[in-house]
Amino acid sequence: MFGKYVFFAFNGKRVLYDVLKAGKVMMLRFISQTILLFFLTIALSGIGALVQVNFFSGIFLVLEDVKEIVSALVFVLLLYVNFRYCFPDQLAELRGRNVLSDRYPVWVKQYIFFNCALFVEEILYYTIKDLVSMSEVFYRLLGFVVFASFYAYMMSGDEFKVKR
């Protein structure tokens, strides 16, 4: 029996607890969470790039010709934002440390809010399109109203108010 053991009472029984073994389990848990978070960040960046390109290709017909190039550029931008700003804060939160999301530049916050509003708009767009048959113009107009209202709601938070 190696390691440092601690005795404590649990439901009236004395329990032996190996602190070093628990530390190794916690380290393994953190490593696996970090790997999962890494792949999840890449996957969400890819999905976000595809959603943005799909959204803007409906507005700008020029994007149809260069869709792959624009998708790759948006994917790289999303990877930069996610790994530069979001990933370290998520790791700090996994470790139980203070998250410093107030250090984000304003453009990063606006870009993250833009992506969130765009995801909500696209989900609503395809849900309504599957349920109700109307013209494409109505779907896009309704999607834009949802996007603008959701984006405005998120931008009305305390971090965007002018501080005096």
Overview in brief:
Helices cover 70% and strands 7% of the residues. With 164 residues, the chain is mainly alpha-helical. Strand 1 (5-10) and strand 2 (13-18) form a beta hairpin.
SSE topology:
Blueprint (H helix, E strand, L loop, with lengths): L4 E6 L2 E6 H41 L7 H28 L11 H26 L4 H20 L9
Helix pairs in contact: 1-2, 1-3, 3-4
Please tell me about this protein's structure.
The chain is mostly helical and 164 residues long. The protein is built from 4 helices and 2 strands, in the order E-E-H-H-H-H. Strands 1-2 form a two-stranded antiparallel sheet. A hairpin with a 2-residue loop joins strand 1 (5-10) and strand 2 (13-18). 9% of the residues are buried. The model has no long low-confidence stretch (mean pLDDT 77).
